[in-house]
Design a protein that fits this description.
Blueprint lengths: L1 H12 L1 H8 L4 H5 L2 E8 L2 E9 L5 E4 L1 H4 L9 E8 L2 E4 L1 E6 L4 E5 L9 E3 L9 E6 L2 H7 L7 E12 L5 E5 L11 E3 L4 E9 L7 E5 H10 L6 E2 L11 H37 L20 E8 L6 E4 L3 E5 L7 E2 L12 E5 L5 E5 L6 E3 L2 E2 L6 E2 L5 E4 L1 E11 L3
Parallel strand pairs: 8-13, 8-15, 18-19
Antiparallel strand pairs: 1-2, 1-4, 2-3, 3-7, 4-5, 6-7, 9-10, 9-12, 10-11, 11-14, 12-13, 13-14, 16-17, 16-26, 18-20, 20-21, 21-24, 22-23, 22-25, 25-26
Helix pairs in contact: 1-7
Amino acid sequence: MSWSLWFCFLLTLFSSDISVLWAHPNLQEWEKSVGQVTCRSGRKGSRGTGFLVDNKGHIATNHHVIALCLPFSIGKSLNVSFSSSESSSATIVKYDARKDLAILKISPPSRPILRLFGTFQMAKGERLWSIGFPGAANLAIGHRSLNPTVTTGTVSRLSRDRRNRRVIQTDTPINPGNSGGPLLDGCGRVVGISTFGARRAEGIKFAVSTVELLPMLHSLQIHSTVVNSPCRPKPNLQGGSQAILWFLTLGCLVLLILLIFRKREMIVERLTRVQYKPRRTFEVPKQQHLEQHKDEWILLGLTGEYTGSSIPLRRETLTFGRDASVCHLVFPAHDTDISKRHAELKVDESHLVWVRDCWSSQGTYLNGRKMTSGQWTPWPKGQELWLGKQHTSFRLDSKARS
């Protein structure tokens, strides 16, 4: 069963890594914080994406998404829609054309707020998700949908662009309509605002880091939830993955219990072999029934594997157990009531019989009383010895020497 011990050890050691591999983003919850931003100025219009940054209705997006509505005046409209039945007019609170960022304000909706990642430190290859409303998707299906599109990719590199903005290069698809939407890590924190892509190039997109957005929020005293710790995704297991994890955990627990109860006797036996060295002589008790015996001792099998057997005892140690390499009276491997090295019997120089329990799992009983493990005890004639349970028993008898 050594393989099972290694399995449990490795499962415990790498449990956090297994959880990360099976971690599944809570996309349905993240989508609730993302809305479509629509700006109209006369016959012209633009659409993009925005996301909630606090519980008072403040929304972050790109400046170029709402640029047509600047300056805001009669004939211009700005709306944020979360669904076909939930649309709110918005006002422009603040914008920064150089950073291509803007803050809008709507009536506070009953929707979750996305957390913001407060540092510009990410690992290349880290997985990312983009949520938005790309116009090409609606053109392809032939009608407008307010069900956001989710795309995924990785961090390609961190750098600064020609405007000296800190930007995240990613291969996550970012198309017209995604602008202003959140770029999230595996923990659901917004790490960047989807902004633009390289022309005539595939898989080269950019998002302005949230560290460029935070000063704008602070200047407006907008209290967002900012997290600076590295991302360690929590497992959001569903269906078969959850069943597999529960099965592995339960299986490991069962194996550990089996190891504890089935291997304990082997450990104790090995310890006793080192700790105990049998003495060549024994102190003879002064009880009358233990006076020197001149007859020949006989071990009679009453029940169990040696029922009906008559075993003569000489001046030697006799070991009972299931391990054929160290035992003289060997019992079947399936008889788990008897330990691999269960008990020992010895006839001393005074021809008296002594017996001791070898730290067996089920115990050794002399005349119905459980013996103390490791302690040699005299075995009077006529008394019974049980190994584990009464279904394996012996009685000490004698016959006259011929």
